[in-house]
Design a protein that fits this description.
Two copies of one chain form a homodimer.
Chain A lengths: L4 E7 L3 H11 L3 E2 L3 E3 L4 E7 L4 E7 L7 H6 L4 E9 L2 H10 L11 E2 L5 E5 L9 E5 L1
Parallel strand pairs in A: 1-5, 6-9
Antiparallel strand pairs in A: 1-6, 2-4, 3-4, 4-5, 7-8, 8-9
Chain lengths: 134, 134
């Protein structure tokens, strides 16, 4: 069911410093910051040869990563995103096996303009998993 | 400097259950458990089309992931591994910029038989980063 690892998302306390570190110290290809008001984050995409890293910084008062950064002031790996062909079929299979889907269980349009869902970390070894239909 | 994302490593409290979940619920290609006594872990490799997930479970009393699982009993994303061409050049550049390398600072032979180093999470947005020379 799951295909490529689309990205690993890292919540960071200082987006400019983190982007500069990936660009200059780690020598990666780093894009410009992009505000995603619908998702409450500003994102910097880092292109690796086989996948992406996404740096996330809170945008607005209701940012979904605000609490994460309060608990992890240095930042940390926030979630990983697997690609799926059919997000509704994936959701229904996982739900039928007892896994919990976050929110109202309906896919939303994610930061890449494609349908996404998040799975409950407690049901997946403490890892927040995003599924993205590609 | 950094190349491909070689793998994302997930520490899990129940290796058999986690491997079965990735194989059956998530439909991924999951290998057999492999004991790595030199690294204090039993590993299950999950092959995705573009990278790997490594499930880690403690092996022996001095396992480096024992403390992580005590703090995160459900498990969690433990580290991510970036490939580099020249691990000593990468280390020396990062050290000269103030980043800390874990252990004695010398590469060890990692679970894939290649030289690896770990970078201090506090210097990299709370993320434990492994560098592997390929």
């Amino acid at each position: 069911m799951i295909g490529r690892l689309n990205h690993v998302a890292i919540a960071v306390p200082d987006l400019k410093a983190a982007a500069a570190q990936y660009e200059n110290s780690l020598g990666a290809k780093v894009g410009p910051p992009q505000d995603e008001p619908d998702h409450g984050v500003t994102v910097v995409f880092i292109e690796l040869p086989n996948t992406k890293i996404e740096l996330l910084y809170p945008l607005g008062e209701d940012s979904p990563i605000k609490g994460f950064l309060e608990k992890n002031p240095s930042g940390g790996i926030h979630h990983m995103c697997f690609e799926v062909d059919d997000i509704l079929a994936a959701r229904d299979k996982l739900k039928s096996e007892g896994a919990r889907v976050l929110g109202n269980g309906e896919p939303k349009i994610g930061a890449h303009g494609k349908p996404v869902l998040f799975l409950h970390p407690k049901d997946f070894n403490g890892c927040l998993i995003e599924l993205e239909q590609v």
